[in-house]
Give the backbone structure.
Amino acid sequence: MKHLDEYRDAGLAQGLARRIREASRKTVNFMEFCGGHTVTIARYGIESLLPPTVRLLSGPGCPVCVTPMEQIDWMIAVAGLPEVTVATYGDMLRVPGSGASLAGERGRGADVRIVYSSYDAIELARENPGRQVVFFGIGFETTAPATAAAVLKARELGLENFSVVSAHKTTPGIIKALLDTDELKLDGLICPGHVSVITGTAPYTYAAGHGVPCVISGFEPLDVLQSVLMLVEQAEQGRAQVEIQYRRGVRPNGNEKARRMLDEVFEPADSNWRGIGVVPGTGMKLKPAFSRWDAFALFKPELPETVEPAGCICGRVLRGAASPADCALFGSRCTPADPVGACMVSSEGACQAHYRFRRK
Amino acid sequence: MCLGIPGKVESLEGNTAKVLFGDTLRKVSLDLLSEEVTPGDYVIVHAGFALERIDEREALITLEILKEAAGLETPR
């Protein structure tokens, strides 16, 4: 397929890898922020092409992984309420809460539907006027505009049986929080391509201003290799700039229309990140004008006591402070078929990516 | 989760497009797009919404840079 196959050429990958090996002198730690990049790196064995001087760390850009347990418990509890239909992206279905999961609730008779798009949830509400349809909005700036569009559509249609949960998160504040800790010494950031389609380069100016080279990367293997080469070159030359490798999709100013819709519907809120804690201004909550469609305002389910899985080091993995193999549970008690922590549940979680592609 | 897949716009109807991914045709909303698209354009699609039109000129430049970088040191 056009715009995919060109970026998977094995010969070009070997050539790029050779260039990286030739250019790399200093030992560097680069973080791939996005879970999508984690999967590309694992699936295509990118690390095996890199010299020992270049080390890649997974970051917090896996929405399912960083959603705190109490929010997952809240969503599972809402699914169990009478007359409620939950509409969610497939990623959320198997995430374990303190007790059950959405899949488990569905097994007990809850009406949980997997939707492809937030507009499918709007359709569900129109087709089922006797039920309250609750859409679970989770993800970063890539995903949040679709939630905003659904809220605006619900207002336009005067839909009274539709609401959204906004568990959305934003990137600038968490990048700053990660860089401001002493735990992590980063020499470069592989920046999330599809977040940047919406945001443009703005979220990374803080990092570049603090000496960390940034490259906004596409998601195919050659995209990632080229981004690593661009970061190595910045590091070797002592530069720290925001560069765009994913030029076919990312404009420096991002998608201004999508951002206007975000600004119309959401306002910044403090947000709790699993394994990291509360980071000011990194959440998105519905503005008061839209409280009619805010599930957090409409439903007050009874919640179980929050129980974090014992022995799981997901939090440290999400901060780039540990790798999945450092966890005593990894691959033994914790596998994709029987996951303990969120990083093993999500297909783009660092633990599941390591397990599926690296342990062969 | 922030997956975006390139697809080719086949036809337009109001603010919805039919977009071809390989040999699968899907309805995609254009509500988030800043720019106009026409049939034949490629768009990046995430969860049923087109997020951006793919810039063909930039794609060609990227491929040129890639080939140059990969081939420059090829011993022949």
Q: What stands out?
A: Chain A has a mean pLDDT of 94.
